[in-house]
Amino acid sequence: MERNSKKYKNENNNSSLNLIKELAKLNEEYKSFAYIVSHDLRAPLRAIQGYTSILSEDINDDKCDELKPILGKILASVAQMNVLVSDLVEYSRVVSHEKQEEIVNITSIIDSVLVEFKIKMQDRNIVIDKNICAERLFSDRYFIRKMLYALISNAIKFSYDNSVVYINTYLQDEGFVIEVVDNGIGIELKNQNIIFEIFERLHGIESYTGSGTGLAIVKKASEILGCSYGVKSDINNGSCFWVKFNNTK
Q1: CA atoms of 87 and 34, how far apart (whole Å)
Q2: Which of 37, 68, 96 is where one domain is finished?
Q3: Are 116 and 196 in a shared domain?
């Protein structure tokens, strides 16, 4: 019986070591992928943008007026591709980030994120209403900030002008809940699961900017931290996105 017990422990240890090695390998592969996407894809994009700008400046003849809108569309497409590359790199960084848990202050993270949206909120007269009933959480600061940035950005983007975005935190069933609530365009029930998948967009780029990676980052970070997440929403009646942390020590 003792030999079997030792054998079982050794097998468990070997399995754990193999899993750690596989995770480390996967982590390095994601880092390599992010580097390749960031550098190798951006180089041709910069070239296209540069040559197109030169052509656009050199076209002065009235006979070439029909080419200017085409060049404008090329430049707009390059700009959108640059956004896509940046967002894909950001997603890869989240996937490859090594979790480091500590006691974090949610209010300070929220405030630091809101600074980045100050001008956008002023331009559209969007106000933030914070209701922080729970403030301290044992988790990873990096992942929490990424999730809050994505959720707040999403709420502002899809809110109507002259509206309020609510950020709530509270304890529920031994869990720590963060909610970001808007009174914007809302989401149909059939789409409330797919919006967390990477590159899933419900609206054309001409209506709302972005690449469809923000909520995918929320999903991936939640999976790494062992959180649950979701959305409650109705068309034209806003959305409530939530993340629930089970570890509140």
Answers
A1: 10
A2: 96
A3: yes
Q: Which of 145, 153, 157 is nearest to 112 (CA)?
A: 145
Question: What is the rounded distance in angstroms from the CA atom of residue 229 to the CA atom of residue 223?
Answer: 9
Q: Of the candidates 80, 96, 112, which is a domain's last residue?
A: 96
d(CA 54, CA 37): 26
Angle between helices 141-158 and 214-225 (to 10 degrees): 150
pLDDT tens digits for range 134-182: 999 999 999 999 999 999 999 999 999 999 999 999 999 889 999 999 9
Which of 245, 220, 199 shows the shortest CA–CA distance to 93? 220
Does 165 lie in the same domain as 217? yes
Residues 122 and 231 in one domain: yes
**209 backbone dihedrals φ, ψ, rounded to 5°:** -75, 170
**What pTM, to 2 d.p., does this model score?**
0.73
| Tokens describing residue 23 | 């995770």
Does residue 224 share a domain with residue 120? yes
